[in-house]
Amino acid sequence: MKTNEPQRLYRQIAKQIQGLISSGEFAVGSRLPAERDLATQLGFSRPSVREALIALEVEGVIDVRTGSGIYVKSLGKKKSTPHSALNTPAQWGPLEVMRARSLIEAEMAALAAEFASAQDIKAMTAAIKGMQKDANAGRIPRDSDIAFHMAIANACANSVMQDTLALYLEARNGPLFERLGDYFESPVSWAAAIAEHQEVLDAIASHAPQRARKTMQKHLNQAHKRFSASWRSAPSRT
Question: Which CATH superfamily is domain 88-233 in?
């Protein structure tokens, strides 16, 4: 008996869009409807449609031109991705990952505020300093950002939490995350993120669990908003 392998939601949406392209609904060279209109037409949320569009861009099916629109680049090719590959963190939808992180890491921050040692606080402080140093040098401070969040997980003294967060952070190395970062990560966005990290650290260092929970939720919800911003706010690319 052959069973159908489940697909991630953004892959299902991408398949629908590619079907419309193949059928001639959207011809090669034509502009797709605006993201909001496309979400309404297909009956899905804008974040899920955005993930689908990014997947299609990575595959060379569409071309996102900031300030102009999203254009059909090619009919694309049908390709079968092994189920095992679809289950890797690299294939997780970036905006879905952020939503999951806002729930789980908020509780991690609250626990860290209760149990963090002086050494844990020192590790978080060093990570923020590393972020600031990289940002000032014009580098994306991704490694230091990861170090900060892992330092919080380590402060919880729970290996399952540490392993879970490590998987979430591994997803940032995936092609969808990287492409979204190309559009929406900038010196301004990282300056905001660093300030949010500092708020989280201040709450943890003050051993204030409720404040730590709220500041972490705020940070990850703001990150989600930054990656969900209008394409027009992204820098134009040639």
Answer: GntR ligand-binding domain-like (1.20.120.530)
Is residue 95 within 8 A of residue 228, CB to CB? The reply is: yes
Helix (H, G, I), strand (E, B) or coil at 106: helix
CATH 1.20.120.530 domain residues, the chain: 88-233
Among 238, 230, 234, 233, CA closest to 34: 230
List the beta bridge partners of residue 64. 70
Give the architecture-level CATH label for domain 9-82.
Orthogonal Bundle (1.10)
Residue-by-residue pLDDT tens, the chain, 238 positions:
334 445 789 999 999 999 999 999 999 999 999 999 999 999 999 999 999 999 999 999 999 888 788 999 988 765 555 544 556 888 899 999 999 999 999 999 999 999 999 999 999 999 999 999 999 999 999 999 999 999 999 999 999 999 999 999 999 989 999 999 988 898 999 999 999 999 999 999 999 999 999 999 999 999 999 998 877 666 554 4
Token pair for residue 206? 């003050």
Q: Which residues of the chain does CATH 1.10.10.10 include?
A: 9-82
Strands 69-72 and 62-65: antiparallel
Of 102, 189, 92, the closest CA to residue 140 belongs to 189
CA-wise closest residue to 67 among 232, 214, 238, 228? 232
